[in-house]
Amino acid sequence: EVGEVPQSTPGAVPERKRTPPTNPENTHGSRRSAVYRRPFRDRVIHLLALKNYKKPELLDRLLRDGIMQKDKGSLGKILQQVAKLNVKDNSFSLKEHLFKDVQKDWPGYSEVDRQVLKRILSRKSASSQNATSTSHLTRRGPSDTGAPSRT
Fold it and tell me: Which residue stretches does the UniProt record annotate as biased composition, category Polar residues (predicted)?
């Protein structure tokens, strides 16, 4: 009887019940529908706030999230309004002044997206503060008009 394994041992951990795999389509379903109802321009702005996109990549992402029929042909026009084209790699990035319109709690953002956005916004905030402090340094000091004149 050496080498025989007992069928059940007292105190053994019971086998866990397996849960059926989740369908990735349903995982973000509520997030997807919340974004789908938002204005198309806002959707483009919030995607470009995270990273630069080439037009086909951006269109693909928008299609995955769901796109209304009326919006399909307007991507080029919206990109002209909200993005600048990087001619080196044909990618689009969000225009600087639109970062102030980005909602940190945008329903289409995952937790990772929110962290990325937080880093981007803090970097932009720091660079704008540096630009402001540099412009203060280049200004002239107090005027000499109030100083007594020498004779």
Answer: 1-10, 124-136
Q: How far is it, in rounded angstroms, from Cα 71 to Cα 94? A: 19
pTM score over 0.85: no
> How far apart (Å, rounded) are the C-alpha atoms in residues 50 and 110?
11
SS3 (DSSP) at 66 = coil
Cβ atoms 100, 82 nearer than 8 A: no
Stretch 36-47: mean pLDDT, rounded? Answer: 94
Give the C-alpha separation, 6 to 8, whole Å.
Answer: 6
Domains and CATH numbers, the chain: 36-125 (1.10.10.2670)
Give the residue carrying structure tokens 């689009």: 92
From CA 149, how far away is CA 27, in angstroms rounded?
77
Q: Is-contact 92 55, C-beta < 8 A?
A: yes
Contact 120, 80 (CB under 8 A): no
Q: Give the pLDDT score at 56.
A: 94
Six-digit token string for 118? 């937080």
Q: What is the mean pLDDT of residues 30-57?
A: 90
Q: Residue 77: pLDDT band by 50, 70, 90 thresholds?
A: very high
DSSP state of 94: E
